[in-house]
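User: For my dataset I need records formatted as: sequence, then structure tokens, nothing else. Please produce one.
Assistant:
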Amino acid sequence: MGFIKNQFLSVIEWQETGEGVLFYKFQNQEIKKGSKLIIRPGQDAIFLYNGRVEGIFQEDGEYDIESDIIPFLTTLKSFKFAFNSPLKAEVLFINTKEILVKWGTKNAINLPAPGLPGGMPIRAFGTFNCRVAAHDVVIDKLAGIRQTYTVGDVKERIIASLDQLLMSWISKEGHDMFNLQIDARNIAKGIEGELDADMQTIGIGISGFTIESFSYPEEIRKMQEKAAAQSMVGDVNKYTQIAAADSMGKGGGGGAGMASDMVGLQMGMAIGQQMVNQMNLNGAAPQTQGQPAAQGGQGPKFCPNCGTPTTGSKFCGNCGTQLL
């Protein structure tokens, strides 16, 4: 008899061997006399009978099915285990923990942008948080046809609608296409609301959505870097002079390289002086005593013989060529 009795002992539990599972349906539908239910932290156990919810148990611990569970079931309070008549019910384990999921756009999204007929292709990356929000909706919409439901399923559904949501929220707010990161928080908040409303229809809640970064094409990134450099210098002419100095500095090798380094240094000093002069002019500062007077545009800015900046002189300080 002892051997026969032990055959009917079973443990109903979910060990959560798979990562990111939101619910799990216990495989064996026959609950035998002497069975135990184990609920781990972060889990709820729901008893189903003929597709109906009989009871929800949320406190973690170990329970005896016959004495601790059945007396609290809705229509099975008087169920008595017989020798060969187990309780044919389902147990659905719900993961109550909030799960962080990383996301990224599968393909580049073409956003309408002035001067770009095909739009500006961008990618976006970030995270979202999800959890089971409504047990009854999950049971009605998912558990009837699925043994499990994972964050991978949630992510697949979100990614399917994310492209359109990004385009919609970026366009409706009139954001600067070349500086979306500054508005990333507001864009993400709007998207979070719409995603949560959609996922609530299957009992899943989206409690957080963030955009960590926007990724632009390489050509756009280079344009942004050039624009930033030009802004720091002050105007296009000065940016061109710096580019010329950089090019000369990277030019020949050996002694020629040393000479070009010196020329680059001289050009840098001259350009710095020109920037100071320009700031003084803009601020209506008086001319410093001993400072060369403006040449009114007369004479070349660079020596036609060696390329050294003239700084308003009549003769080149490097090769002595007459400039005026």
